Amino acid sequence: MEGLQLRHHSADEADGVLDQLVGLYLEVHAGGGEFYSEDRYRRQLSMHMQRVGWELVTATVDGALVGYIYGFPLPPQTRWWDGIHQPVPPGFTEEDGTRTFALSELLVLSGWRRQGIARALHDDLVGSRTESRTTLLARPDNVAAQTAYRSWGWGKITKLQPNWEDAPIFDVLVRNAAGSHTNSSG
Length: 186
Hints:
Elements: E1 4-9, H1 11-14, H2 18-28, H3 38-49, E2 55-61, E3 64-73, E4 100-108, H4 117-127, E5 133-138, H5 143-151, E6 155-160, E7 170-176
Parallel strand pairs: 4-5
Antiparallel strand pairs: 1-2, 2-3, 3-4, 5-7, 6-7
Protein name: GNAT family N-acetyltransferase
Keywords: Acyltransferase, Transferase
GO molecular function: acyltransferase activity
């Protein structure tokens, strides 16, 4: 897409655009209920930005933020898998700090969707990672996201309900470094 610029940010660099990140999140999730509140998201973002290896990629067009993606490697004592539904493959939730990169958010403003921005953000961040797999949580009812993720090599493993208040149940998706999923349950 012409004029699209992607930029990697560390947590320190992201502090300068924090309000823009939150504003975009709130616009994308407008009307989504208490789980998508500004307060909860600011707490989540603050906690995630403290994770070792946290990385953000922003997408701008003519200097305006139109989307972003961020994530971090899962540490050995991660709480990421808390609330996971069984059964899961043996050892699936075991982490060592280098096995799994967790994609926490991939957001594009509605007026900029279906122009390849989400794919560009995804490929830029996921393609730069050294972990053997990447995981994310996707709403089962978000058909557009589910369709995109499947076409990008993601597969569903199970479901998970985070320990956040009012959290919905999400599908747990996984993509191996080679771009294929494992043990898909549908």
